[in-house]
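Appendix B. Extra example for self-study. Work through it before the problem class; the solution is given directly after the inputs so you can check yourself.
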Amino acid sequence: MKNRFIERPRSFCALGGAMLTAGAIPGAVPILHTAMGCGGSIYWNQVGSTGYLGAGYCGGMAVPSSNVKERDIIFGGTDRLTEQISNTVKLVEGDLYIVLTGCMTDIIGDDIQAVIRDFQAQDVPIIGAETGGFKGDAYKGYDLVLQTLIKNLIEKKEQKVDHKVNLWGIVPAQDAFWRGNLNNLRVLLSKLGLEVNSFFTENDTLDGVKNSGDAALNIVVSEFYGIEAADLFLEVHGVPYITSALPIGATATEEFLLEISEALEIDQDATNKVIEREKIIYYKYIDRIADTYNDQDFQRYAVVVGDGNYAAALTRFLADDLGWLPELTIVTDDFEDEKKNKIDKYLERLNSGYKTKVIYETDASEIQYHLSRHWPVSNGQRFYDAFSPAFVVGSHLERQLAKNIGAAHLTVTYPVGNRVVLTRGYTGYLGGLNMIEDILSVLVFER
Amino acid sequence: MSKINLSEPEVQAREKRLGSITGFIGTASQLVHCSRNKELEDAPRSFSQCMGCSSSTALCQLSLIQDAVVINHAPVGCSGDFAKFDFLNIVGQVERNLPKTQGRYFSTNLEEKDTVFGASEKLEFAIREVYKRVNPRAMFITTSCVSGIIGDDVEAVANALTEELKIPVAACFCEGFKSRIWTTGFDSAFHAIVRKIVKPPQKKTNKVNIINFFGSHIFDELLGRLGYQADYIVPYSTVTQLEHISEAAATIQICPTLGTYLGAALEQIYGVPEIKSPPAYGIKGADNWMRELGRVLQKQEEIEEIIKSEHERVIPKISEYREKLKGKSAYLTAGAAHGHAIIALLRELGLEVKGAAIFHHDPLYDNQDPASDVLAHAVHTYGDVKNYNVCNKQTFELINILNREKPDLMVARHPGMVICGAKLGIPTFLMDDEQFGFGYQGVINYAEKILETLDTIEFTKNLAKHSRLPYTKWWLEQNPFKYLGGGYCAKNY
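Solution. C-alpha cells for the complete assembly:
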C-alpha cells in the first residue's frame, strides 16, 4: 500500500522527530534550516498530540530557525544558515547545537556539513543532520539524529565497560510516555547492576551521551526504531546491540531481563533474584485488585491500535498479563513486509495462545471497516455473539470507533490529545501496574 | 481598491498586495504615519526562530468547515496542524451543539521519490478515494512548499476532478516559503472559497456575515434587535451556508487581519457592504462601530438607543474596575488588528500599556479604506503607544523586552507566546476568543479576566524561580532589535 495518502498521519515527519529528539538531549539546542512554518507546525503537533508536552528549555517557538525564503530557495540557503548559526551561538546558551534541515533545504541541496565544519573549526560544539520531512516519519528522524551523534559526537573508546549499556528504541514525544518508559527501564536495569544511558530523560547528561562509546551493549527496546543507528554504532564504536519488543508488564519484562542478562553474561541466579523480587511486589498489587477484577468481570474484548512498538506490546500485555481478549491489533506504521512478518511472528507466540488478527492500516476511519470484517455485525439473528464488552486501547483518534462500537477507550499511542503526560510510563513491572490502573480506572470512571 | 481577481488561481501574497511588513520599531503613531505615506519597508532578521506559515492559516479556516474535507498535498509534517484544528473543531462543536464529528483531513504523504517524479497522479488518486470514503460536499486541496517546488499543477487537477466528481474541488495555494506573512494563508483560503464555493446571490437576505475564528456567538442578540440574523462564517460553517454568503445584508469583521480579503471580495464582487469601522473594542471603539453598523443597516435610531442604555449599564462598572486596576501596567503580544484592539481594551481599563509586540502590519486592508485602520483608530482614540514593534512572533526579542519592562501583566493572543511572560514570572493570559473583549460587555469581561489573572500568581512565580531561559546574559543586555535590519533603528530602548 505504499504510495498512498494517509488520513490524519500518526507521526511527525522526519524533521519533527529529529527536532523533538534533538531537543530532548540534555543541553542541546536544535537549529532548523527550513522554511518558516516547519517549526511552528511541529510545535502545534507536539502540544496537541503528545500529552501536552511543552516547549521546555529551547523548544517550541524558541527553536532557532533560518526561515529560508523564496530568494534563498533560488540562490541557495547556506549564507543564511551561516548567519543564523553565528548569531545563535551568541544568543542561545547550548552545550551542543544540532542543525536539522527540512524539505526545502534538502531539495535545493544546501551543503550544511561544510557550514558546520567551519563552525567546528572555531570550537563551536555543533553537529547536523539532513532530516527533510519527506524522508520519512518521526522514527526516521529519531534514527537520523542518533546517527549524527554516533558519527560526530560520541567519543571513541577502545576499552568497553562491562556494566554500561545504552538504551534506545523509544522516540521522544512521538511516544508521549517516553520519559516514563525510559526511566522505568533504567531503574529496572540498574537492579541488574547496570549503568544505563538513556540519552533523552531528565536523568541523562550530555557527558553521558558523549561517553556512551564504551558501553558493553546497546539495548534497543524496539524491533523497528533506532535499528540503523544501532548498526552504525556497532560499525563506528564496536558496540553490539540487541533488539527487544517494548516490555510492558510482568510477562514481557521477565523475558526482557533474561535476554539482557544472557547477552551481558550476567549471573543467571542474580537476575532471577531481581525478577523474583519484582514479581513479588507486582503480584501483591495484582492480588489486591483481583477481587474487583473477578467480581465485576473486568475481562474485555479489545482492539489495539498503535505503532510497531505499542501495537505488539499492548496486545501481548492484554492477552498474557491481564487475561483479556485482544481480537484485533492494528499496526499504524506504513511497514514493508519484513517488518510486518516480525510483528506477526511475535503475536503468534503469545503465552496464552490467544490468536489476534493483525492488520496494517494507517487511517483511523478504516479501522471500523476492518473490525466489522473480522467480527461481522449482527444482522438481527437470535443468538448473536456480540463484540461486547469491548475496550479500545489506541490513540485519541479511536474515540469515534470506541463510541461506535460501545467500547471503553484509553489513549496510549500517538496522537495523545486527551491525556496529560508527565512521569507516567508503561514499561517494566511498574509500567504494567500503571497500565492496569489506567485501564481499569476508565471502567469505573463514570461511577 | 486592491482588485480582487478571481480568474487567478493564486492570491497575491500580502507583502505584494498590501505592502505588509514583519519588522518595525518605533511608536504606534510613527507606524500609522509611515503606513499612510507608503514609507514602510520590511526589515529582515539575521537571527530568527520558529513561526508559522500560510499553510497553517489556510487550514485554520478550511479545516473547520463542517461538511468539507481537506487534502494537504504535502509531506506528512505539514499536517502537524491537523491535531490543533481537530481539537478546535471538537471543542467548537460542543459549544455550538453541533454533531460531534472528527475532522476529515488527509495528507498525500509526499515522499522523496515524489520530489523527483512529481505527485499529481498521487493527488488525483487521493481525491477520488477520499471522495468515495467521505462523500463530502466540497474538497479543499492545500498546497505545500514541496508541491510548489516540484511544480505539480494542482489547479488543473482540482478543475478536472471538479468536473468528474460534480462537487467543488478547490485548490488553495498556501506554500509556506512564498509569503513572509503567514496571514496570507487566510487570504488563500478565502480566495478558494469565493472562487469555488460562493454562488452569485439569488435574493437578498437579512443575514449579516460575521467573519470570525472560533469565538462565542455574541452578535445574535444585537443583530436580532435590529431585525437581522448573525451568520458566523467560516469555522463551523457548512458548504451550503457559504454558498449563500453573497446574499447577506452586510459583513462584519471581528479581526480584519483575518477577514480583509473575504470582506473586500464579497463587497467588490457581490456588493455585500463591509462594516469598515475598526471592530468594537473599548467603549469609544464600540460607539464608533455601532454607529457605522447602524448606518449600513439603516437602523441609526435603534443603535443610538442601544448605545445609551449600554453606556448606562457598563460605564459605572468600568469606573470601579479602573479603580481596582489603577497603577497596573501591561504588555501585549498579538496578531495585528486584534493586537490593536487589545491596546484599546487595556487603555479603557486604565492600565499603562508599556508596549506591544505585534506579529506583522498591514498598512491598509483590501478595502483600501483608511477608516478601517485599526491601529490609527487606537492611537487617535486612546493615545500613542511609545514602544510599538512588529515582532514577527520572535520570542527572543519579546523576552528581552519583557525582562526590561517587567510589566504587571502580559496579554497574548497566540498560544506558544504566553510562556515568555510566565517564565519571567509575569502573570500572563492567552485570549483566543476575539469576541470575549468585543463591544461594551467585552470591556467588563476583560477587566474580570485581568483581575482573576492577578489574583493568584504563585504558579507563575514558582515557574520563574525554577526554569532557565535559553538566552545568554549577553543577549538580555543587548538592544532587543539588534538583529532587525532595514530602515529603522532602535531608539526607544
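Self-check: Residues 316-477 of chain B form a domain with the Rossmann fold fold (CATH 3.40.50.1980). If your reasoning did not lead you there, revisit section 3.
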